[in-house]
Design goal:
Blueprint: E1 18-20, H1 32-40, H2 44-61, H3 68-82, E2 93-97, E3 104-107, E4 111-115, H4 116-119, H5 125-140, E5 149-150, E6 162-164, H6 166-169, H7 174-177, E7 182-183, H8 188-204, H9 210-226, H10 233-237, H11 244-253, H12 265-272, E8 276-277, E9 285-287, E10 290-293, E11 298-301, E12 307-310, E13 315-318, E14 324-330, H13 336-344, E15 355-359, E16 362-373, E17 376-387, E18 390-399, H14 400-414, E19 418-419, H15 423-426, E20 431-437, E21 442-443, H16 444-451, H17 461-467, E22 475-476, E23 481-486
The structure holds zinc ion.
């Protein structure tokens, strides 16, 4: 969870609708037929406006990586390339999002995103250019204007979640925070066209399209290493990987013969030296069953065995059966009473209001509530806690039929909120990429062993090989730049 930076109070008058969606993934999709009809009718201005709105929500839900120089670098490369396309007049925007997944995506209207996770897997500027070219192509070919779908919850690593409609979201914002689920998912012909155009764009800038093929190979390895049950993010937004490497070679061969410039490997590696690698524990991490948040300085216990999802605007725990949830958010209000009113004034929400108490010494208000939904009555408990100049709101709920049992797990969780005082936890640092130059010829494995000599390696040799697009026993010439990872996860 991230410190709130923008006030986004919603005052919708739509009636509260709480939908509990079970493992059937299609259930949580927008009706694609309706969506497609709507989006195919939109004008260019509407497309830009739609992209701008989604861009704000992406910034809020995923976060923009806080490194101005890296942002400027990616933005300049992207903008220069976009100016060579069929649609140079779009207000092109390129952003590095603060997310450790390996992904890149585009929104209608000229918005292109790469995660810091994918940046740490590239090994040259040419590779970055290849992916930017592909994303730019989805926009110039207007693929997004005809195909905007909601991605599945598996993106979060959970098979199911509760989705709450707008009025309830300011209290329990899973669906709102889940804006990151709103990605474009393209058809096979869209992907082929984006590859063809993207190859032309990158080659036009002087980069050898072979670089895009090595990216495809890395993405394949990332998917494999991700293991079962984990949806590879890039494949989710860019499906149909079949034969793409051959196709890209074909597109490249069809271009006018040309001399390609350097892939700018060293320049690129220098740019990403020191970027955050893996999850950033400063924005929350689980340790020994407790959720720690060093930036907001609190600790919270979630019920044992529940799945905890840490999003920028909310921390959400789901029961093993995925039929109960505890959600933590920061209220936009400045008092316990005002925050509580937000809940109880919501249309359809029933309850007598809060009782003032102290939770681990902190001023708080607790109360019960119920909400009728199409799936039946929801019952829950709420706690509003004043701490460090903010109102933290905790909501636990399930269907009325199971609430009595879940209440016994949820109440202790709500009452466990307390200040984080452990100095080590407060001072936690993320892992970072460390680009080092090989002094004399060696193997990656030997370099790895000497780099982590006497310490517990933060990442495996296989992981280091993957991000360097090498094998563990690859030979390294003297003078080669290699990415290592320093730091370690909280323990
Ligand atoms: Zn694509």
């Amino acid at each position: 969870m991230k410190q709130r930076t923008a006030r986004t109070v919603r005052r919708s008058t739509t009636r509260v609708l709480v939908a509990i969606l079970f493992a059937g993934l299609t259930a949580c999709m927008t009706n694609p037929a309706t969506g497609e009809r709507q989006f195919s009718l939109i004008s260019m201005d509407q497309e830009i406006q739609m992209g701008s709105q989604a861009d704000l929500q992406i910034a809020q839900s995923m976060g923009i990586y806080p490194d101005d120089r890296l942002q400027a670098y990616v933005s300049e490369l992207g903008t220069t390339m976009a100016a060579t396309t069929e649609w140079p007049e779009l207000p092109w925007t390129f952003r590095v999002v603060d997310d450790d997944t390996v992904n890149a995506f585009a929104l209608p209207g000229g918005f292109v995103y790469v995660t810091r996770g994918i940046l740490s897997h590239f090994n040259s500027e040419a590779q970055l250019a290849g992916v930017l070219g592909h994303e730019i192509a989805h926009i110039t070919a207007r693929h997004g204007a005809t195909r905007l779908t909601r991605m599945q919850m598996t993106q979060l690593g959970v098979g199911l979640a509760m989705v709450l409609e707008p009025r309830f979201q300011r209290i329990a914002p899973l669906a709102g925070a889940g804006m990151q689920l709103l990605f474009l998912s393209f058809s096979r012909s869209d992907e082929q066209e984006a590859d063809e155009l993207g190859v032309r764009y990158m080659a036009g800038m002087g980069y050898d399209p072979e670089a895009l093929i090595s990216v495809m190979e890395t993405l394949r390895r990332v998917s494999e290493a991700g293991g079962q049950g984990r949806l590879p993010e890039w494949l989710a937004t860019h499906p149909h990987p079949e034969n793409r490497q051959d196709d890209i070679r074909g597109h490249a061969a069809a271009l006018e013969p040309q001399e390609y410039v350097s892939d700018r490997r060293e320049e690129y590696l220098r740019r990403i030296d020191g970027i955050v690698y893996g999850p950033d524990p400063r924005e929350g991490y689980m340790l020994g069953g407790s959720f720690h948040h060093p930036t907001l300085r609190f600790v919270l216990e979630f019920p044992l065995g529940w799945t905890v999802i840490n999003q920028k605007q909310a921390v959400i725990a789901l029961s093993e059966e995925r039929d109960a949830s505890v959600q933590l958010t920061i209220s936009e209000e400045t008092s316990i009473d005002a925050a509580a009113r937000n809940l109880y004034d919501t249309e359809g929400v029933d309850g007598v209001g809060i009782t003032r108490v102290r939770i681990n010494g902190l001023p708080a208000g607790v109360g019960a509530f119920s909400v009728p939904t199409e799936q039946g009555l929801i019952e829950g408990s709420a706690a509003f806690i004043e701490y460090d100049g903010r109102i933290f709101q905790l909501i636990g709920y399930s269907a009325a039929s199971t609430w009595e049992a879940y209440r016994r797990q949820v109440t202790p969780s709500l009452e466990s909120f307390r200040p984080l005082t452990d100095r080590r936890a407060l001072a936690v640092e993320p892992m970072r990429l460390d680009v080092t130059r090989v002094a004399r010829a060696t193997s990656l494995r030997a370099l790895y062993d000497s780099y982590y000599n006497g310490t517990t390696p933060a990442v495996s040799i296989e992981q280091i090989a993957l991000i360097n697009q090498l094998e563990p026993d690859s030979r390294l010439a003297a003078g080669t730049l290699v990415k290592m990872v320093h730091g370690s996860p909280p323990r």
